[in-house]
Amino acid sequence: MNKLVRDILLIVFGSMIYAFSLTFLVIPNHLAEGGIPGLSIILHYAFTWSPGITTFILNSAVLLIGYRVLPRRMVMMSILTIPLISFFIYITEGKVEPLGDPLGSAIFAGVFIGIGTGMIFRAGGSMGGSTLIAKMFHHNLGWDLTGTNFIIDSMIVASGLFVISPLNIMYTVIALYIGKKSTDFIVEGLDTKKAVSVISARAPEVADEIIKQLETSATVFKSYGGYSKESKDMVYVIINRYQVFRLKRIITSMDQEAFVIIHDVRDVFGGSFSWLPFK
After folding, report:
1. Among 47, 60, 98, 257, which residue's CB has the most CB atoms within a 10 Å radius?
2. Which residues cross the membrane (predicted)?
3. Strands (E), 65-205
């Protein structure tokens, strides 16, 4: 499938899932959400304004103000995403009754919001709203993107205290956390990788054993100890999380004095690794 067509389909279905999560789970159960859609929902609670129309107006205003300082691709993807999300919200708002369980609604809202958002991000799209505002502050004032985006979303959710109960705000925080994890799952995949650095006097032998038993590649570097002033070899290997225990056992059997560092890897591609979701 052509990459552009695939990306457009991901954005369409991601926007639909995101919007339906709001109109089926968030709004009927009097919860909130971050970003411009979250602000539109709060305005809906306060003044009964249409969240679909409000989302479109506010997102369009932000895009018009900031389009000159934003990357062209972000602007183009926002032009596609903003009307889609607003349209799907508009055609389904007010058509679903509350489930009667705000906590359960928050949990599943977070799951589906994260899936929709992850599909949009996976296609290289933008949600608009607070992301665009944070980008503008970053460009003009040098503010940190992630921190600014978090502050904006937190302020929007906190403003819901004036129109919904503190308990529902706490449920909203749960939904936001689950949504973040769901987004990470869609963007990064289930089989997360680990990067392992092994400093050992027997590094070449350790690398050979890792290659033999785990059937993966390994790289051996020259390293220099700043404290010991000694040169040693270092093995660098990427494995999946299920191989960590076996790797530790291999290293321990080869060199009990080896120094090992294990950390998460956000993404791996090329070589013997391939991306399975949405390929």
Report:
1. 60
2. 7-27, 47-67, 74-91, 103-121, 155-178
3. 193-200
